[in-house]
Amino acid sequence: AQGAAQLSVMFNETDVDHPGADYRSKFGTAFGVNGGYNFSKHIGVGTEVTYSTIKQRYIDNSSSFTQKFNYLKVPVLFTYNTNPERKFMFTAKAGPQLGILLRSKITDASNTALNGNTKDQYKKLTFGAMAGAGVRIFLVDHVYLDAGIHVDGTFSNTEDKGYTAARAKTHDLNGGLEVGIKYFF
Q: Most buried among 43, 50, 86, 89, by the most CB within 10 A?
């Protein structure tokens, strides 16, 4: 089991180049479960199922609003750890990730007509990658505490309908601090 506090940004070059536009990243959370198999004492493969909230505040000359997303993220990760026989060990993980859009909405809009469900404007599935590194601490028989940093983001365009063809692709990037409890069989 694991949880994370994360900072997110939705990046679109068209929006960045818009005069007077201001992005304000907001904190979100992520929590879920993971499992894996080690081929040796140091190398393995695993997966996670994580419920992630992504938020961003948009402000420009004429309006402001907060865009909120909820994703179920499923990465397939290649894992590495240093000597598992020590109390402290370094860990690393990286791999491709599938994002499943569960909910998207606008809130806190200066123009209240913008508030509401926006799920139909975004792709239901996104493809990206996830990477992380940290420390694993032995607690008691087979139980470890994991703490570290992670980053994940999309390669595919997150936007779907309602935008012009000339609009640049939108990608999300999330970084956070995660903490988890691991049980090894």
A: 50
Query: Cβ–Cβ contacts within 10 Å for residue 169, how many?
Result: 15
Which residues touch 134 (CB under 8 Å, ≥6 apart)?
90, 91, 146, 147, 148, 149, 178
Which residue type is seen at 166? A
Between the CA of residue 47 and those of 81, 94, 96, 137, 163, what are the distances in Å?
16, 10, 10, 20, 34
Q: Where are the beta strands (DSSP E) in 16-87?
A: 22-38, 43-59, 64-81
Assess contact for 15 and 21: CB atoms under 8 A: yes
Partners of residue 67 on adjacent β-strands: 56, 106
Sign of the torsion angle spanned by Cα atoms 78, 82, 83, 86: negative
